Predict the 3D structure of the following.
Amino acid sequence: MKKKLCVFVIGIVIVGLGFGATNSALAGNTGLLNDAKFDASSAAGLMSKWHKPPVTEPVRITWLGHAAFKLESGGKTVLIDPWITGNPTCPITVDDIQAADLILVTHDHGDHVGDTEAIALATGAVVLAFYDTALRFLSEGLPQENVWGWGRAVGGEIDIDGIKIVMTQATHSSDTGIAAGYIIQFPGGGTVYHAGDTGLFNEMGLYGALYPIHVALLPIGNVFTMDGRQAAISLRLLRPQVAIPMHFGTFPLLDQSADAFVDYASRYAPWTDVTVLDPGATFVLD
Ligand SMILES: [Zn+2]
């Protein structure tokens, strides 16, 4: 009995130490959310300690409205959540998409799956989605050559044609599988995080520590995702060089501007450049 108790106590101490270490590591990264105490003058120095590998091949990031993005780097085109038809803020039509190599689907809701199947068939792109969502695409007739394996789940890096892709956690729902986000590491050095639809969650700090995120694409529209203030706080966890807001202004239900995000980000994470794109506009990471 004594031996069991001893093992139990040692276990508690080990778990406690681990938890403390994780918490203090995150506290060191994120600091206190106290605007008055935050020393903005040290922000540049802090950022320089967060090593990001050089970007040798530019990444062109085009917002297609809502959560839809086109990423281009090194001759490859990656679409994320290509909701084109019926998207009130999307400035293009499906016919305008001439080429795509890869389509990443964050979750199985109409405003994210969008035109995935039609674009895959027209361009020959491969679709990466959560396991259950990939099986739905296959069962509904999308050929195996257009679906990456049986899909995947939240976990580590997979390599598709030299692009390393991590599927991340997201706190949201999905008609099949669960909601996710993606960290996309291009062979030319650029790393982009698309959060999908999500609320704020502390494990973003682990993703920020594990992967050198240059650009974070973050939902800010509230109701179904983070609002501007929460998204600004997420910058302390993710530590991107650049943040681009999304999932706002599409419907009356969502926040209509990025003003709150811009304002809070300037106070909570002044080391991150916030770039607010108009639908159709492109940011180039180089
Ligand atoms: Zn959505």
